[in-house]
Amino acid sequence: MEQTQQQRTDVAGTPRILGPGGLIARTVAERSDLMRAVRRHLHRHPELSHAEHRTTDYVVEHLEGLGLSPVRMAGTGAICDIPGSDPTLPLIALRADMDALGIPELTTVSYRSVVEGVSHACGHDVHMSAVLGAAGALVRVAEEGALRRGVRLVFQPSEERHPCGALDLIGQGVLDGVDSILALHCDPGVDVGHIGLKTGPITSATDPVAIQVRGAGGHTSRPHLTQDLVYALGSIATQLPAALSRRMDPRSGVNLTWGSIHAGSAFNAIPSSGSLEGTLRCLDHDAWDQAEELLEEVLADLVRPWGVEARVTHDRGVPPVSNSASSVAVLSAAVTGVLGADRLDPTAQSLGGEDFAWYLEKVPGALARLGTRTPGGRTFDLHMGDLMIDERAIDYGAAVLASACVQRDPVGP
């Protein structure tokens, strides 16, 4: 007997679509070799933030090959909708970041980066491949009439640089008609086949901080006739992080760490200018909101004894990624259904930053940590040129994301 449309739609919650033997799992398995080839192509041809032109072309071509109609964003990046059977429902979005890092690749794999000094050392090639894999499975589900809620695929440029790509795409309307959004991030400290999840904040706010200091320089034999700028810089470098730790709630996890200090060029001359650059991280959103005013106040107090002028530039980078309980529940159900309950790992909040947070300022959603470590193998680190990914993670990530899209509607706080 021929199935009616309603009968075909009703199977979305059954093993015919979900579960280890369901349509999603079968489709991902059938496309596994293709997704690895996609990842290796992207890995071989990395592009820096706001310059992901060839990457955008490649992603668009792949989506068009699935019979979809991707839309290019201004500059770089693309979005693409997979229509659901009920157009009155809001969309769920899946986000993948696209940019690479200015870090030379140190691996010797056959598909290593061919771009000098640039590599996918943060795993964004895996993120794109997993979302494209999910897209292939969801197209099959839609052809079965079992995709009730439409899905928007968001391929975002410039996660690694400020200004970040998330705000750019939000400004271009990528969240119009969307009421929830999901994403994965590679975690080389978690075994492949496992997914880490946490309700609430899972990353920290991350802000670049730069301080310019000026004063009357002079000879080191006459410091009393100068404004000893190097001494002032040393005081700022050590005392500003300490003062913040005492002026702000310690539970907010405020951490100011310097990456560079520059001043002078001669051993016997006190310079007239110098600078510090670093990163301010906050685990708590309220502390992040307070940080800028407090930075300026504490800095002014610190430099007053030295008579120098100091100006702080605090770039509001990204807030903490705060996962909604409902979206975590949806991803948890997807992980349990696809991989098994023993593959769902609790995870701690990190001090890393992620511009996915900006989407969650607008709609609920969740970021999951995708295990990429070969069991028993070496634990690599992100943003290192020798990063190696167990490529089975692509299949697991694709299946989990696709399954999450056909779970119960992931809406609510």
Secondary structure layout plus pairing:
Elements lengths: L4 H6 L12 H8 L1 H13 L8 H13 L5 E2 L5 E5 L8 E7 L26 H20 L7 E6 L8 H7 L6 E14 L3 E3 L2 E2 L3 E10 L3 E2 L9 H19 L7 E9 L5 E2 L2 E10 L2 H19 L5 E6 L7 E2 L1 H14 L5 E3 L10 H4 L4 E9 L18 H14 L8
Parallel strand pairs: 3-4, 3-5, 5-16, 6-15
Antiparallel strand pairs: 1-2, 2-4, 6-16, 7-14, 8-12, 8-13, 9-11, 10-12
Short descriptors:
elongated, eight-stranded mixed β-sheet, Aminopeptidase, Alpha-Beta Plaits, disordered N terminus, 2 domains, four-stranded antiparallel β-sheet, disordered C terminus, alpha/beta, 413 residues
Describe what you observe in this structure.
The chain has helices at 5-10, 23-30, 32-44, 53-65, 124-143, 165-171, 229-247, 285-303, 325-338, 357-360, 392-405; strands spanning 71-72, 78-82, 91-97, 151-156, 178-191, 195-197, 200-201, 205-214, 218-219, 255-263, 269-270, 273-282, 309-314, 322-323, 344-346, 365-373. By secondary structure, it is α/β, with parallel strands linked by helices. It folds into 2 domains: 5-203 and 320-405, Zn peptidases (Aminopeptidase), CATH 3.40.630; 206-314, Alpha-Beta Plaits (2-Layer Sandwich), CATH 3.30.70. The strands form 4 sheets. The protein has an 8-stranded mixed β-sheet, with helices on both faces. It has a 4-stranded antiparallel β-sheet with strand order 10-12-8-13, covered by helices on one side. A two-stranded antiparallel ribbon has the order 7-14. Helix 2 (23-30) packs across helix 5 and helix 7 (229-247) runs antiparallel to helix 8. The longest helix is centred in the first third of the chain and has 20 residues, at 124-143. It is elongated and about 80 Å long. The model is unreliable at 1-14 and 409-413 (pLDDT under 50).
